[in-house]
What we know:
The complex is a heterodimer.
Chain A: H1 18-46, H2 55-58, H3 62-87, H4 91-121, H5 133-156, H6 164-173, H7 179-203, H8 209-221, H9 241-271, H10 281-307
Helix pairs in contact in A: 1-9, 1-10, 3-4, 3-10, 4-9, 5-7, 5-8, 6-7, 9-10
Chain B: H1 10-29, H2 35-57, H3 66-91, E1 96-97, H4 99-105, E2 142-143
Antiparallel strand pairs in B: 1-2
Helix pairs in contact in B: 1-2
Amino acid sequence: MAHATQPTRLRMGLPISNAKLGMWLFLGTEIMFFTAFIGTYIVLRMGSPGWPTSPDVTHIRIWAGALNTFVLLTSSYFVVVAHESMHSNNFAKARKFLWMTFACACLFLGIKGYEYYGKISHDILPGRIPESSQQAMEKVVRELEAVVSARSDALLGDPTVKEPLVTLRDEAGKPDVDETRKNQISAVLALSEQTAKLKDDVITEAAELEGVEHQLAEMKLNEQYGSLVQGVREPHPILYGNLFASVYFLLTGFHAIHVIVGMILFALMLKLGNKLSARQCDFVENAGLYWHFVDLVWIFLFPLIYIV
Amino acid sequence: MTDGHSHVNYLLIYGALCVLTIVSALADIIHLSSWVLLVAIVFSVATAKALAVMTYFMHLKFEGRWKYVLLAPTTILAAGLPLALLPDIGVHYYTVQVPQQGILIHDAHAHSPGGKHAAGGGHDADHSEEGGSADQGEHGHAAGH
């Protein structure tokens, strides 16, 4: 260590470098930061009987979480080896292991991105999840209405038209319209009619969840407009789904931001290339401390989010 | 000072961490009969892993006593927030209105068309979607626990 070479100098304060003390103080604040979120999650979950846990509902894949745990543990090990190599002045080896750590971080974010994609494609997003049967059916109607409006706008090519469906109906009545366009227009008109019928049932509470599910499945098979509504999602109410999604994205999102910051720290060292030397020893040690903390947070997030 | 820990077999620690991860994944996969047992296992494992990382990877084993001065207050403060929230939100010492749950349990309950009511008294403001589904607040049954 740099300061160990000057044993005679009087040194005030703690027997560690200022940089390391700074990093530990920062990690102290980080402990409070993450405990606040993790603790809030535990408290909210305790207070919400019926919290969604089934993987079919939450689209949480334990294998992805376990794999990411391995990836982070491995990267933690690589950082330790890199730091050790820095101490023994083997900078080529240190660089190699820093690269491997960086690669692990990329892999972690890749798996995380895959998981986020699964959530987004099932619309498991805060504020977008129906929590009761009624909300789920209303959501189907909203999605169908969005399809009708997007399709009629596309057919008209002018989103400023006030009554697009009326305009389209008038157009279809004209004798000089070609057959393909006529079919397209009658498809959107038929879909709009069916949607209005479904909406009536839903808002008057005459509809049942299974009935709407069945009707939607039939609409998807319809020869005329079936292809338009393939993207409309089945009604799946998830009790506390929005709270779950908020907590999930908050916890894993902040963790992912920390991973990205760690990657920046490693990138700063990797950018030096062959110039990596004993001067960067403290930096690598502190970046390593930070990285182990990121690993530490994940060690708790894994059982909390993926298992329990 | 920090050079005294070069004898640590980091590969061994890493191996132990991997084995512990497999233990918690297996505890989930074999579907234990008791949820409490599962929680006990996975959190014991997580704590063991965290301690191993802190002790060896973060070199706390080889640091001076300053580590206690620095980490004890933060840990106590960190525990403060969850403990403060627990009685109010986690345990509910009063009857709480949970709109979504009331509706799922009493689904046949009369329910007005969307958009007429503002989201009233909702459990959490960001639950309600715009318009149509924001009308549960007034209709939700008080769901006691």
